[in-house]
Description:
Structural class: mainly alpha
Strand order of the largest sheet: 1-2
Number of domains: 2
Radius of gyration: 23 Å
Helix content: over 70%
Distance between the termini: 11 Å
Largest sheet: 2 strands, parallel
Amino acid sequence: MPRNGGWKRMTFSSVLFLHVFFVGLLVCYFAPFVRRRETKNLVLLLFSLAFYACGGLAYFPLILLSIGINYLFGRLVGSCDDGKRKKRLLTVAVTLNLLMLFCFKYLGFLTENLHLLIPTLPVLEIVLPIGISFYTFQGLSYVVDVYRGDARSEKSLVRVALYIALFPQLVAGPIVRYTTVAHEIGERSESWDEAYAGTVCFLLGFAKKILLANPLGQMADSAFSQSGDLLTTGLAWLGAIAYTGQIYFDFSGYSDMAIGLGRIFGFHFLENFSYPYISRSVTEFWRRWHISLSSWFRDYVYIPLGGNRGNRAFQIRNLAIVWMLTGIWHGAEWTFIFWGVYYALLLIGERYCWGKTLEKCPAVLRHGYALVLVIFGWVIFRAPTLTAAWDYAAAMLGLSSAPFWCGQASYLLRQYWVELLFGVLFSMPLLPRVKERIAEKGGGLFRAAGAATPVVLLFLAGLSYISLLSSGFNPFIYFQF
């Protein structure tokens, strides 16, 4: 598996970003003499490339290569009137994008497995460039949309580069389509209202990350670091539940921060999460989780393969291919491949086997069914190997030799019960429902809530900042993909 290049120097939740990068960008972008849209785009592009370069200069040329390939083939495909030649150009563009992704993300995994069969073959140690899966998919969607006629071929290299390299969603999504931001790249407008709304979104995401994802991550790491023969059932469930919360608040927190930053600069990215843990089926879960990735595979892989057309065997084949690719997209490791297969089987089963029976069950049973399957899925996703995943799942089912409970489980509960409680509460749509009720009643309650919002945000921001300074634990899970 490729080693991650590391991104310890600057993330949205780092002091360097908050104090230096973001302040510098605001000063330059909103400077009185920076008025023309193209000038603002250039400032945003240069800062975005600098943001990416902080992840390691060695792989900085890769994103420039990606920009160059997709700009060039976007122009060639857009100006070509010959259908066959146009298709060949698209094929070359797709091949180059996927070849770059394969070489830096999967070649090391391939040589590692070939080495097991042929020991004389060397194993390549390749550092995984940060964000390569995300910006490769964005570049691909641009060229494909130009080919389909859904987007026009962009003449400006700066605009294509800004679309691919825009820093808020560059390294961990959401995956943005060119068709959704093309107009805003050229004609967006900034305002105090949008800046305020973006700041609110950013601070909520920041609080999710620092106050919930990070402590839950420490709790999960404590459980997953135990060997299978020492892992008790109680500790295994605590760790799995903690990781279920960590990955949601980590990734949705990042997406919120990305969406908030985008709004400050006039961009409106689509929501990437819609309270996935309230789902009553695995199918519904994947309509609510990482929406930009699911919709990307639907529009650029599943539908071109034939989608729901054809007989049942044909549809099952399409689903299996999409979910194998979804697993592989997440990483060059057998656990991710098996994770994709796991969800392929569940989704196929819900569609063709037990889905109608499930719909007749009480809502609470359907919710429990979906949540338990999702938690076991995260165990596969989190475990370093398939053997470790099996041992962990066996402990959760009470099949290990260890007792049911242990002192470490009690300690973790005492240490993190507040984060667990708030994690459960805020994984449900409580805030939207409270806003709806306040809006319905209006009057003094509405005004009081509006006045209290800045105070609550400042409190969360201060608490998050203090926690950030006092803790050295601050990884983003999806940076490894």
